[in-house]
Write a structure and sequence with these properties.
The protein is mainly alpha-helical. It contains 41 helices and three strands.
Length: 769
């Protein structure tokens, strides 16, 4: 039998050597013995490492060239890792004492700090070099007094900062158990000791595979208790200082206490920093994060935002940013008013802190209530000033965009330098590329009257129209449409562009672009604008009439779309309502036969309240003019449709219907009677039903059947009261038809109701007839 040997080498992570100027390449070798048919028989996998010594590396070495040479000569390093090699070489070049264990944890996530970058505080300097072979001696020190315990823990910390030692330390249960015991028993005795031991476990928490180890020794729960205790101490310090400050006779004592306080505060913030970052690492597991939340981690972090140390604040803000993706944590931040404390961080010069603060605020800005807190905290001017910083611009713009979604806050942008900056950025962008976030933000701001005035100052509107008309940019046209809706001096600026907009409508442009042009024209309710000339010059009437016709299938399937999209048709209806304010335009529209088309459209779109309201508004505008009013009353069924819609569920529809019918009734006596009768019938519907029921009972036909047994035999046009003629001319219906209560007006409906309830008659009966 023949066997074959197959070997596979897989590259791994890169690191720097803890004591020499060298790179360590971790890789994996997989050896497999294959059978005669190529099937694997025996396999073995082994983790190996290769050390690349860099004896020629000095302060004058060209890092880029050396990194390229290392990648080319070492096949274990993939060319894609060239930037990482450069970074490691740069660190080795600038590391003064490589023997101190200054190691970059390259396998650690970018979001986390490495132990080299993070753990550096006063009191951890040593006059001897830590050695992994002397770990037992360091553990012995943990059983001595506090100074010896601090020394032993510091030596172990120096070992833990070298990622290559973590596996050996993990297997030393005695050392880790002793550290956990000392932390649990003596954390109140020494801040230095507590900080050092937590830093050792922080080194383990930097790697996800060691999280179970940290959890096993319950370091996370202990850290929560320690942090809570330190925050309480901080409050006591503050109270004590305040009392001494108020005592005028103890000025020297106050200065002495202040110096002591500053020293204690520095050590405490180092402890809080490493403790919170250990918890942040452990919070990768959602179950662990939930347990932290149950112990009020959000409240603890928000309280820590009052500190001044920027490195500590960076840890706190990063932790809050991670927690903010869950609704429960976001609500806790809203309740603790975290935004007020975050607002002051926007003036920080620390770029990472500023960036993480903005990201946290962006997460929170999706909540309406928190957006209100942001405005109250004065974030609009602060974020507006940060728009000048290109590195933070996108984050600031997204937060401001969310704030601008609320109509309550739109006007506040007019009192900042936000709009001039946005306009400048808007026109710096080329015509071929428009920043969607930027233009969307501008569209929101343009919906406010004060903002619109600022935008149109100078040549603002002219520049926008050039971008909207020439490249035919839909987003710019949306912004222009919002600007055109405001009454006052802003709207009059659009007179010069009416012809250009009308030309875009009749041209064969994209539908969404035409919708915006139509909407802009429909907003231009300007008294000095000659709409009749515009309609004739650009031949708009035939265009509107042709596009308003629904397809044949729409009559049978009302929920299907007609010959054009519903949005396009709706904008056309609104435009007709606008131009109908002009007498000559209204006549032109009526003569073109567009009113029957609108009635057909009303039947098709009867389920859409917006369509119904706008079509009725067109009729409302037309009845103002004598010529069109006569056409609507005498030649169409518009008044009948309006009567049917008088009692629609939509309040706006009812309002427009009543106003239109009032005008019709004022100029036509016949319709006056029908309108008043319908209003009376609706207002007194319950009473009329009751009276009609008693009248039917008196006729000996309690079920309302006619002579032929048909229950609807006496009803004409579906109205049970039509057999009585005009209700307003039937005084016998006002009270009763039972010949008991007189109809001469001496008895009111209230008395009749009492009579039906048995309350009348006992007091002396009815008045004499």
């Amino acid at each position: 039998i023949q066997y074959y040997f197959h070997q596979k080498v897989k590259g791994g992570s890169l690191d720097v050597h803890p004591t020499e100027k060298a790179l360590i390449v971790q890789y994996e070798v997989e050896a497999t013995i294959l059978g005669e048919m190529g099937e694997p028989m025996v396999g073995e996998r082994k983790e190996c490492q290769k050390i690349i010594r860099l004896k020629s590396l000095n302060v004058n070495t060209d890092i880029a060239s050396l990194a390229q040479k290392v990648v080319e000569e070492c096949r274990l390093i993939h060319p894609s890792k060239l930037p990482e090699v450069e970074q490691l070489l740069f660190y080795l070049q600038n590391c003064r004492k490589p023997g101190n264990g200054c190691v970059i944890l390259s396998s650690y996530k970018q979001e986390k700090h490495s132990s080299r970058d993070f753990i550096s505080f006063e009191g951890m300097e040593l006059d001897q070099e830590a050695n992994i072979n002397s770990i037992d001696d360091y553990v012995e020190l943990l059983y001595e007094e506090i100074p010896e315990k601090v020394k032993g823990a510091t030596l172990i910390l120096h070992l833990a900062r070298n990622s290559g030692n973590l596996k050996d330390l993990m297997q030393n249960k005695t050392a880790l158990g002793a550290l956990a015991r000392v932390l649990r028993e003596d954390w109140k005795q020494s801040v230095d000791l507590t900080t050092t031991i937590i830093s050792v476990f922080f080194c383990f928490s930097s790697f996800s595979q060691f999280h179970m180890l940290v959890t096993h020794y319950k370091v996370g729960a202990l850290c929560m208790n320690i942090i809570e205790h330190e925050l309480m101490k901080y409050d006591l310090w503050q109270d004590e200082l305040q009392k001494k400050k108020q005592n005028q006779n103890a000025k020297k004592e106050h200065e002495k206490a202040l110096r002591k306080y500053q020293g204690l505060l520095t050590k405490q913030e180092q402890l809080l920093q490493v403790g919170l970052y250990l918890l942040l690492n452990l919070a990768e597991d959602t179950w662990t994060e939930l347990k932290m939340r149950n112990k009020n981690i959000v409240q603890t972090l928000v309280k820590t935002l009052e500190r001044q140390d920027e490195e500590l604040l960076l840890v706190v803000v990063t932790f809050l940013k991670k927690l903010s993706v869950f609704m429960e944590n976001k609500n806790d931040m809203a309740e603790t008013n975290a935004v007020m404390k975050l607002a002051r961080l926007l003036s920080s010069d620390h770029k990472d802190l500023l960036n993480n603060t903005l990201r946290l605020l962006l997460n929170l800005s999706f909540d309406t209530g928190i957006r209100s807190q942001m405005v109250q905290a004065g974030l609009i001017p602060k974020l507006s000033s940060l728009l000048a910083d290109e590195s933070q611009r996108q984050l600031c713009m997204c937060i401001l965009y969310h704030i601008s979604m609320d109509d309550r806050f739109k006007s506040m942008f007019a009192y900042t330098d936000c709009i001039p900056q946005l306009m400048k950025m808007l026109f710096v962008c080329g015509e071929s590329h428009t920043d969607k976030k930027l233009i969307s933000f501008c569209i929101n701001l343009a919906a406010n009257k004060k903002n619109a005035q600022v935008i149109c100052e100078g040549n603002g509107l002219k520049m926008l129209m050039n971008r909207g008309l020439k490249p035919k940019d839909v987003f710019f046209m949306k912004m222009i449409r919002n600007l055109s809706q405001h009454d006052g001096p802003t709207k009059s600026l659009f007179i010069d562009y009416v012809g250009d907009l009308a030309a875009q409508v009749v041209g064969e442009e994209k539908e969404d672009y035409v919708i915006e042009c139509l909407g802009t024209l429909a907003n231009l309710t300007i008294p000095d604008l000659d709409w009749d000339l515009v309609l004739k010059e650009y031949n708009l009437v035939p265009y509107l009439k042709d596009h308003l016709k629904p397809d044949h299938c729409t009559f049978f399937f009302p929920f299907q779309k007609g010959s054009a999209e519903d949005d396009l048709i709706l904008e056309m209806v609104i435009l007709i309502g606008t131009v109908s304010t002009d007498d000559s335009c209204a006549v032109t529209m009526a003569k073109s036969g567009i009113i029957p088309t609108l009635i057909d459209l009303l039947n098709v779109q009867q389920q859409d309240d917006e369509f119904v309201c706008q079509i009725i508004y067109v009729f409302y505008q037309m009845v103002f003019h004598q010529a069109t009013r006569d056409v609507i009353i005498k030649e169409t069924d518009v008044p009948a449709y309006l009567i049917d819609l008088m009692h629609d569920q939509n309040a706006e529809i009812r309002k427009v219907c009543h106003n239109t019918l009032d005008i019709i009734a004022e100029h036509d006596a016949a319709w006056w009677g029908r309108v008043q009768s319908e209003k009376f019938r609706w207002h007194n519907s319950q009473w009329l039903e009751m009276v009609e029921g008693r009248a039917v009972a008196d006729d000996g036909d309690p079920f309302g059947y006619g002579d032929d047994g048909d229950p609807l035999a006496y009803i004409d046009d579906g109205d049970p009261f039509t057999r009585y003629g005009n209700i307003l001319e039937r005084p016998d219906l006002f009270y009763s038809a039972d010949r008991i209560i007189p109809v001469n007006g001496t008895i009111s409906p209230e008395v009749f109701t009492d009579y039906l309830n048995g309350d009348v008659g006992q007091a002396g009966g009815f008045p004499d007839r």
